[in-house]
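RESIDUES AND SHAPES:
===
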Amino acid sequence: MTALPPQPLSPLDGRYQAAVSPLGEYLSEAGLNRARVEVEIEWLITLTNHSLFGSSPLTQDEKHQLRALYLTFGQAEIDWLAEREAVTRHDVKAVEYLVRDRLSALGLDRIAELTHFGCTSEDVNSLAYALTVKRAVNDVWLPAFRGVIQKLRDLSLEHADAAMLSRTHGQPATPTTMGKELGVFVWRLERVLAQVERSEYLGKFSGATGTWSAHLAAAPQVAWPNIARDFVESLDLTFNPLTTQIESHDWQVELYDRVRHAGGILHNLATDIWTYISLGYFAQIPVAGATGSSTMPHKINPIRFENAEANLELSGALLASLGSTLVTSRLQRDLTDSTTQRNIGVAFGHSLLALDNLTRGLGEISLSRDVLLADLDQNWEVLGEAIQTVVRAEVTAGRSTIKDPYALLKDLTRGRRVGAADLAEFVQGLEIGDEAKQRLLALTPATYTGLAEQLTRSKL
């Protein structure tokens, strides 16, 4: 058998690449290396700004030239680093050599020895990961997440008045509206959205074991913790002053848990929409040219929601693994976090793909209000709750002497289909006040939705 030409192993880099490619700008190896170069360059500028070790502040033009090294980072730098890392067997060291090489090309050899000054690799990595994850979340994941929420909000408000039968435990139950049920997901997702938006992205810059030992050996008079804090905060990150060799990754654990939580809610949404489609509540809008089944031409399968389920499960598993691994580091450092963090993009990739699935799926369904109403009309027994509650109120008010209203309705409705005429006859025979009786006689399953519409419109 002839060997295939090199192929992407992950479907995220093959079949689904178009849907997740924006994450590659940040959470790929190249994106990480670009951020590492950014950290190295900005640290050089910081050291010269403080005129340390006889250096002097760079001119604005020199700073512009240096920053161009990461602002224009591209294939030439990617190839250069790959060749150098093949020799160094150390990714961050290769980045340091790249910066030194470019300094020489710019005629800035005078500051070459300040490259990576006082740094352990994890100083650079902690900031590079914080920058790339923060940018990926803010620029790519959050807009897609907000897009799903907005799509849901629009559907919820559109269908705020669409009465439908509830199905607690899968059984007919007190009616609600489709808008209110979708609104529940909007409410849940917006809480998690707010938590993700408030996420902190921490970085450390304190040397081999978090003590600034080498820094003090070189310049004991310098307030290194203050310089490090200012440097980290200049990158719009939160400074972690007390660490081992690594930044402790707790912020990552918190973030990934929130994203996983969001995924769990979205998974619940996907399974509910799938079920509503199977009940006929939602019709799927045919897409021109699409095939639902290889043998049954009539079918439109709910593949968007099924694919979303699968991708959310994969993402959730990876995010949980990231959290459980990153929370621990043996003594002052072990390397388990290195390989683990290289899969951050995979975890967010499956999550982003699920968001794409849901956005598309929610745009390809149409509510079948006639099906909802027909279902309600087949289940008049759900009014048993309303009747027994009204009877209780009448007993309390002294307008009825009925004993155990709940048992009375249970005998009438439990496990039985009761029609409109049956209930009307039953209500007519109840010993209750006339106003209450007329109110019950006017009630239908389609109007027994309480505050569902008002809740939807007022809370969204």
